[in-house]
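Posted in: Structural Biology > Protein-Ligand Complexes

Title: Requesting predicted complex, zinc ion in pocket

I'd be grateful if someone could produce the 3D structure tokens for the following input. Sequence and ligand are given below.
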Amino acid sequence: MLGIGVAESLVLVVITLACALPALAGVAMFVMTIVDTARGQGRWGINFKGASCPQCKQAAPTIRVPKTVGQALWGGWTCERCQLEIDKWGKPIRDR
Ligand SMILES: [Zn+2]
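-- Reply #1 --
Done. Output follows.
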């Protein structure tokens, strides 16, 4: 016997869960990023190709300054030329 009581076991379970849940969330975010990058859409992916405005063909700025919370969180930009809001894949965002 290891001499661990019920209370100690519960503490161990809580510590294990507290460590495992963020790790699982991290794995889930990593997988979602890979999936969205592969399909070229969605919130989680990374656009390595760069994008341009679908309306006026202005290229996305190299240094992106987010104008909304959504842009800061999920990427995308507001076109400097025509003020169209575009996601990081170069698709217009309409419902905001
Ligand atoms: Zn534009």
